[in-house]
Write a structure and sequence with these properties.
about 230 residues; binds D-xylitol-5-phosphate; globular; 8 strands; alpha/beta; TIM Barrel; binds zinc ion
């Protein structure tokens, strides 16, 4: 199903990562967002591409069934992605993002996701340059810039990756493309304004949202902070 994706006049979108939600009460965690979020970010880890295991496509299927209107942003940290994408496509996410480092066949994988009617995204680890995805950048609806080495929530933000966002925004403008730029890892109230200022459209936040008493209020506060900060 093609749910509409747009910034809706907003400066940026907030995608809380379910990795930091209460794993035994996922529905309660989602309810605690009080519909203040924009998307739900689902981190799929294979214990091989990254040193941690998380979920499979059955979680995405269950989320879609329970929340038909949610924008599901699925971040596949699996290798090789071509072995896993079909069941994830069948589970009807809105975005399926795959790591550039995880396959020699990134063009084929992105093409397959697109062909099946899902928005493809490509992810860059902190050590991977923007140049590596230039040949496929026209194929994607989103580029995800990792601001931690993937595998775990709650890690410290790596500021050196922000220059990639500036480069991506330049490429996007120069080529007349419209992919979104997302950033994931170590983002919270202290650095979200800087992240958005450098050009990020979609901010993933795990522990900074679900690690608080009132995740919905936290998202609201963060949004306010960015909007007010941008006016200064
Ligand atoms: C890291 C994951 C992130 C992570 C973010 O491998 O891709 O989405 O859950 O968590 P925080 O915001 O706690 O760094
Ligand atoms: Zn992620």
């Amino acid at each position: 199903m093609a749910r509409q994706i747009s910034l809706d006049g907003r400066t940026f979108l907030v995608a809380p990562s379910l990795l930091s939600a209460d794993q035994l009460n996922m529905a309660e965690s989602i309810a605690s967002l009080g519909k203040k979020h924009d998307w739900l970010h689902v981190d799929v880890m294979d214990g091989h591409f990254v040193p941690n295991l998380s979920y499979g496509s059955s979680l995405v299927r269950a989320l879609r069934k329970r929340y038909p209107e949610e924008i599901l942003d699925v971040h596949l940290m699996v290798q090789p992605p071509e072995d896993f994408i079909e069941p994830f496509i069948d589970s009807d996410p809105d975005f399926l993002t795959v790591h550039a480092e995880a396959t020699p066949h990134i063009h084929r994988v992105l093409g397959r996701i697109k062909e099946r009617g899902i928005r493809p995204g490509v992810v860059l680890n902190p050590g991977t340059p923007v140049e590596s995805i230039l040949p496929v950048i026209h194929m994607v609806d989103m580029v995800l810039v990792m601001s931690v080495n993937p595998g775990f929530g709650g890690q410290s933000f790596l500021p050196e990756v922000t220059s990639k966002v500036v480069d991506l925004c330049r490429v996007r403008a120069a080529r007349g493309l419209s992919f979104l730029v997302e950033m994931d890892g170590g983002i919270g109230p202290s650095n979200v304004l800087d992240v958005v200022r450098c050009g990020v459209d979609v901010v993933v936040m795990g522990s900074a949202v679900f690690g608080t008493e009132d995740p919905g209020r936290t998202v609201e506060d963060i949004r306010k902070k960015v909007v007010e900060g941008s006016l200064k």
